[in-house]
Predict the 3D structure of the following.
Amino acid sequence: MADGLAPALLRVTDLVKTFPGLTALDHVSLEVRGGEVVAVVGHNGSGKSTLVKILAGAYAADGGAVVTEEGTELHFIHQDLALIGELTAVENLALYKSPDPDRACELVGRFGPVFDIEAPVRDLTPAQRAVVAISRALDGWTHPANVVVLDESTESLHKTEVDVLFDAVRRLAADGAGVVFVSHRLDEVLTLADRVVVLRDGRKVADEPVATLGHGRLVELITGGQAAMAHTHETTVRDGDPVLTVRGLRGGTVEHLDLDLRPGEIVGVAGVLGSGREALPSLLYGAASGAADELTVSGAPYPRRSPGGSLSRGIAFVPGDRARHGSVRDLTARENLTLPQLRTLTGRFGNLSARREHAEADRLFTTYQVRPARPEQRFALFSGGNQQKIVMARALRDDPAVLLLDEPTQGVDIGAKAAIYDAVESAAAAGTAVLVSSSDAKELLRLCDRVLVLRDGRCAAVLTGTDLTEHRLVTEGYGLS
Amino acid sequence: MHTPPEEHPVRAALSFHNISAIYIFVIMFIVFSVWIPEKFLQPGVWRSLLDAEALTGLAAIAALLPLVAGSLNLAVGAQVGFCAILSAFLLSKAGLPIALQLPAVVLAGALIGYLTALVITRLRVEPIIATLGMSSVLLAGMAWVSGSQQILDLGPDYRRIATTQFGGVTVPVYVLLVVAVVTWYVLERTPVGRRMYAAGYNPEAARLAGVDVARLKTGTLVAGGAIAALAGALLTSRINAGDPTVGPSFLLPALTAVFLGSTQFRRGRFNVWGTLVAMYVLAVGIKGLQLGGSPRWVNDLFYGLALLLAVALSQWEKRSARRR
Ligand SMILES: Nc1ncnc2c1ncn2[C@@H]1O[C@H](COP(=O)(O)OP(=O)(O)OP(=O)(O)O)[C@@H](O)[C@H]1O
Ligand SMILES: [Mg+2]
């Protein structure tokens, strides 16, 4: 634990970083001592990832200094994980060594069931990839007093996977390592961290021991006083004809699934890694290949699913993997927003109406509070949470009949999260049927009318009303009841 | 995130970064004007440059279109060459009238593009390899059709297509202009163009956004093939013979122009006007060196270095955009 005597392994002083048009870090200083877990929190775009990237040497600071204790190495788990997609998990774990499948199995196995570690990493689910990245950062230390930096590494992990990670992190800290932990999940911050550093608009606004902070105070510090709404969802039972009906759906980790989605309802999908939870939305959308005995949309059969076919039937999809599937990083935000549906912006000569397209992008930027408000900026240059807002905005743009969401609020700060929940709820109120697959139990409780808990590719339970509790989600997910 | 002023738009547009080719052009112009004024500053030189390079411009656009959608086409030179020979063959050996011969050649070019696309999208061969293979097949076809000889006696009329002038400018320049304007419109002003860029940058994300990536790729290769065929037909008309050695030499200048062009105007995006400006700037450099008496191998050296530089520049651009 942090006592004043432990040496500072990492000392950051007066760090400044500007990008054209904005200051991402404004004289930020912080220290990490051995045995200490320091959480860095702040709203989307507050400069957390920029800080991490400077520590990693990916960005050069414009001013200030980063000093490490003699012999201390920094290990990173980046927000985008920085894995090599073409290589397998085994190879990614052994970039500077010879690949060792047994060792890889053991490392990965600490976080739950071992998945296909000989498959290219790009074919894994986001959660599996997170496990690989984490295993890599925690592997092969020659010296206990290192510093590990985790940038939103838990966003795509399920509660139990998070627990395993936290155990590993605590063990490291107990052995004298320092930990920097970036997260939007304030409960995690409060359980894991010894000290919390709060960034707001690139400035450090607080640096306090966790013991003096509560959830409410932390929210206040992050938002700068604006209250974040916390209200729970009234579960409602809808009747009426389903807009989407599927029988005997299978593909990927999904073995057999029946589902009816009715207009206006929000249906959650829960389950541990490999349960089929993460495969379901992309399977329904036609992004992943699979088959179904029967699938109808608005009463009409929809035999061969494809993204184009789904879009034209009013089915929108937010992939769990924002960087690879959800966006084209080298196009501008505006171009990303309008890509799936350009027809409505097309003029008489088959041309895109620049005026209408810009207006549309501006409207979405305002509605979803994307910052900075520059639709002409390349997508890649937005912070993680703002990228997620753009991807959400794009899916909601044309009032879809069915909205399929895979981890819709990963990397999103509390304020924006509330905005996204509101958007999903108002879409539902307007008649959209929503399916949310999420590893975040709170999110499912907050949003959903009913939740399907998947286990081994099948529906293990359907929870509604008073049965819909965090406890039940976990026990059903593991088949403990 | 308190906001210092954004970069000034006019200054950004005129920065060396954005229009380096134009600065390079100005420098070269001054150097050659001082060094060899009596040769370099002749209107005839400039007119012939405009005319001669129009075909390179067509070849560059033929390479540009597939590249936007993600297929690097190493066969453009061979495509131009093959279609040039085919033009001559259809006129002299098959005796087709021009009214049939021209459409036949363009159709053949489109078909070559279609076959290449099948190899890429159906057999899933990487575009570089597919087009390299296609290039070799076309070279063989050229040798076979021509017997590795020039095909002469094309009749008196064919020559006029490429040499007729309007307002002092020959037909190929107008053809290039039309093709360039259409390509620009499609790439920058229509949904199809937007989808092409998306497919080229991230095919998987494009697919999930409802873009039919395979069909787009096919479309660009077919259109590129037809444009390369047009270049081939005009080439044969220009030199009034089917020459099996000329076509392949279009590859390097075309690709160099496309890559260097991507560093111009559109911050790393492949684009038509950047391509054409880059191509003419390179051509002026070559011309100046030739007039100054450099040996012919300087051409290859110049284009080779320019290509390496262009690609290095566009990579640097990408990295700096990420870091800044
Ligand atoms: N390469 C870049 N060029 C221009 N602006 C950038 C670049 N990288 C980051 N930014 C901007 O700097 C600000 C800080 O971004 P950063 O990624 O550090 O935020 P963050 O705190 O990690 O947010 P999130 O919680 O959304 O991940 C954002 O406004 C972002 O748009
Ligand atoms: Mg971040």
In short: Residues 1-5 of chain B have pLDDT under 50 and may be disordered. The CA atoms of residues 54 and 175 of chain B lie 8 Å apart.
